[in-house]
């Protein structure tokens, strides 16, 4: 890097600024009763075109586009946060809560999806990229509003220290199922938009691949992780440690999933399930510090860094944004309630699930970006979806905190 101070300077300056603002806003959010993740999510708006860009456009121009190194670290934030979530899940509880998981996930996915599709068909033609793309637009809105943000849910549950409780475990497992359905739906919808039709065989192949990948990873991965853990214990080296095993397994399984065409969160969560039972207290502490201190804030902060919400200043556009937010929130709440009605979940547990799964976070932004790239979403509708993602993520921590306080000391599902 000697002789090339430009790229290095831009990388370090961007990294310093984003981390400083993210941690400052995170601490402020925590102080006023929110979770730190709220401040981290708002960092992108503060440093992006929505606020700083309106005050000092030159500063935003200097910060964007993001350095590839910062973007890469942000991607690692997504992976490590989901690995961390996976380590907190008790596999025995997953087996014991299979019925509630399926019921709640079905309701939490289907109802908001139908609401988003209905909203897409109700939009005035003037807000469509083209009249012929209404179906694709409606399906993209349905997919975006039905998804839940596993990284946000995991971070909030960690911040509130309820991730080990029964309802926290169920929230994580349901979020994984909802996200998996969402990514399969996104793949199908994208294929429909590109080709004008859906190949049923291709859809079945995706589902089969997802199931096969999970089975192979959990079956083959356990003895491999056990051997790596034993090797690290014998080495007694600060280099080859349990934490190093967590990183290697996390990155390897995630890379394998991505290489097969699966979304990164699937492999990362499976990796967390593998390494969780072998992780000691020190490994868990280091994983929390590294993930929540460096990588996760970068991921959340950069998620909305290039979003310009000033396009929503138009009253008609603002009305569409409000309608989308209402459909998203009510769809998720009603869907969770309908699914929970088929189980023995209490009202307090159902409320926690409805609130925890309501956050969309950067996962919804990824769906919106795909729609924008395919020409199905206009910049205005992209901004609407981003607003829903940020608003629901900001609402979740304080509401979930109150809902958790109403749970009995030992809650079971």
Concise summary:
With 413 residues, the chain is mostly helical. Helix content is 77%, strand content 0%.
Structural descriptors:
mainly alpha, 413 residues, globular
Task: Tell me what the structure shows.
It is found in: Membrane. It comes from Haloarcula nitratireducens. Pfam families: Na_H_Exchanger (PF00999). With 413 residues, the chain is mainly α. The chain is built from 18 helices and no strands. α15 crosses α18 and α17 (361-373) packs antiparallel against α18 (379-405). It is globular, with a radius of gyration of 21 Å.
Computed over alpha carbons, the radius of gyration is 21 Å
- Strand content is under 5%
The strand count comes to 0
Class derived from helix and strand content? mainly alpha
Give the topology string: H per helix, E per strand: HHHHHHHHHHHHHHHHHH
How far apart, in Å, are the first and last alpha carbons? 55 Å
Query: How many helical elements?
Result: 18
Compute the average pLDDT. 84
Helical content (DSSP H or I, runs of 4+) = over 70%
Regarding quaternary structure, what we see is: single chain
Low-confidence parts lasting 5 or more residues at pLDDT below 50?
Answer: none
- Describe the sheet with the most strands: none
Principal-axes geometry comes out as globular
């Amino acid at each position: 890097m000697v002789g090339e101070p430009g790229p290095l300077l831009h990388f370090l300056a961007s990294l310093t600024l984003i981390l400083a603002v993210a941690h400052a806003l995170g601490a402020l959010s925590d102080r006023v009763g929110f979770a730190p993740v709220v401040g981290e999510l708002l960092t992108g708006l503060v440093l992006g075109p929505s606020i700083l860009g309106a005050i000092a456009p030159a500063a935003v121009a200097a910060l964007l586009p993001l350095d590839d190194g910062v973007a890469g670290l942000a991607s690692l934030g997504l992976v490590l946060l989901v690995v961390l979530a996976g380590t907190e899940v008790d596999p025995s509880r997953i087996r014991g809560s299979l019925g509630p998981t399926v019921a709640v996930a079905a309701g939490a996915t289907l109802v908001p999806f139908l609401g988003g599709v209905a909203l897409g068909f109700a939009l005035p033609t003037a807000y469509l990229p083209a009249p012929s793309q209404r179906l694709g637009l409606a399906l993209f809105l349905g997919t975006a509003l039905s998804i839940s943000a596993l990284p946000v849910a995991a971070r909030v549950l960690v911040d509130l220290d309820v991730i080990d409780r029964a309802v926290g475990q169920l929230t994580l497992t349901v979020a994984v199922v909802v996200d998996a359905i969402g990514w399969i739906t996104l793949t199908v919808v994208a294929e429909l938009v590109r080709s004008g039709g859906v190949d049923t065989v291709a859809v079945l192949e995706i589902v089969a691949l997802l199931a096969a990948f999970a089975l192979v990873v959990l079956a083959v991965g356990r003895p491999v992780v056990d051997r790596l853990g034993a090797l690290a214990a014998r080495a007694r080296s600060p280099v080859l440690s349990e934490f190093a095993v967590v990183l290697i397994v996390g990155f390897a399984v995630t890379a394998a999933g991505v290489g097969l065409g699966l979304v990164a969160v699937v492999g990362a969560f499976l990796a967390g399930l593998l390494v969780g039972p072998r992780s000691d207290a020190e490994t868990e502490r280091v994983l929390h510090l590294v993930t929540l201190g460096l990588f996760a804030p970068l991921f959340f902060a950069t998620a909305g860094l290039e979003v310009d919400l000033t396009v929503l200043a138009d009253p008609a556009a603002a009305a569409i944004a409000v309608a989308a937010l209402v459909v998203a929130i009510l769809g998720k709440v009603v869907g969770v309630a309908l699914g929970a009605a088929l189980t023995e979940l209490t009202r307090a547990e159902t409320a926690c699930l409805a609130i925890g799964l309501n956050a969309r976070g950067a996962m919804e932004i990824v769906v919106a970006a795909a729609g924008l790239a395919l020409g199905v979403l206009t910049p205005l509708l992209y901004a609407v979806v981003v607003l829903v993602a940020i608003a629901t993520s900001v609402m979740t921590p304080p509401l979930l905190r109150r809902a958790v306080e109403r749970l009995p000391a030992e809650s079971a599902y």
